[in-house]
Amino acid sequence: MEKYYTTGKFAKLANVSERTLRYYDQVGLLKPSFVLENGYRQYGNQDLLRLQKILLLRKLGFSIEEIVSFLSNQNKEEDVLKSLQMQKELIDHRIQTYNSIKESLTLTMDTIQNQGMNWNKVIEVLNLLSRDDQMIESYKNSNNLKVRINLHELYSQNKIDWFTWIFSHIKFSKINSLLEIGCGNGQLWLNNHIELRNRQIFLSDSSYGMIEDIKKHLSDDFSFMVFNCENIPFKKDFFDCVIANHVLFYLKDLQKGLKEISRVLKTDGYFYCSTYSKNHMKEIGELVHEFDPSIYLSKTNLSEQFGKENGEQLLKSYFKDIQCFEYNDTLVVTNASHLVDYVLSCHGNQNEKLLKRVNEFYRFIEDKIKRNGNIQITKEACLFECKKK
């Protein structure tokens, strides 16, 4: 039987102040299980689990807005176990990082005492400190990516999923050396298989955390690297093929990125890059704008950076024989939670704007679904295939 606690008892049990509980309630981070007619708040065991995760994520440096975007559907046992595993991995990494920092500090002190000032050792410590911050940021990116992929996996109507469709277009019979840029969580390779013998396949991402995650799920037949697309650490004419799945529109310097990709490709080597049209997922933006016109889900219009409409023109400087294959689909969403999670995973100002209104936004989406039976969302993506000039 579920046990419930008053605010005072719950605060004492969790070793937090009642003021903290009231604040978490106000921002929608931790609501009581229910409120009695006399106004007394009642917290249950599930609230205790949620509070535990909130406190640990705060300790690890996550903002309130970021925690709001992570915490959803935490009442299921499997979600609780996944949450605890994630927390354990974050703590393990932090312990390893702090041990490395401690060892580096000790070595730096010994070096200075015996040899005088060594700035290289100081820089080494700074790099270790920044790597810890990068790991936390990488987890946020990885979690958001999983949320976005999940929406497509649950509600896509196209019988051929996106990654299988891309995989089917790659001319593997002509490819022995391949580089994927921005591999994310490796979804392209998890359920699609080719003969890897006598092939060199490098999976890269700018996120250290993404690469550490993918290593757990793919074999040692793949090589894994962390680098930025604008500076690819391979010699000229190295690869038969380069893949960039939904990557190019994120580059700070697109022309530099394309030039680098062209440089490492062999003559007539294949380049596959995907993007989407200006109409892709437009209904989500319209829903959010209807709820609050001040919310935007991306700081830049990604399809204008590199999209279906302008992709061929942007590729022409470095590539030839450009073909565009269209992938059309529709999402038919029937669960408000999944759509709310997707919105909270985006790159705009939604977490800041929805901080105190997440439950209100959830009801807004849920009412739309109840009224219409579902929410239909347009998917207009494409894959460009081209060759190095």
From TrEMBL:
PROSITE patterns: HTH_MERR_1, HTH_MERR_2. One of its GO terms (biological process) is methylation. Residues 4-73 form the HTH merR-type domain. Keywords: DNA-binding, Methyltransferase, Transferase. InterPro entries: DNA-bd_dom_put_sf, MerR-type_HTH_dom, MerR_fam, Methyltransf_11, SAM-dependent_MTases_sf. GO terms for molecular function: DNA binding; DNA-binding transcription factor activity; S-adenosylmethionine-dependent methyltransferase activity. This is Methyltransferase domain-containing protein. It comes from Floccifex porci.
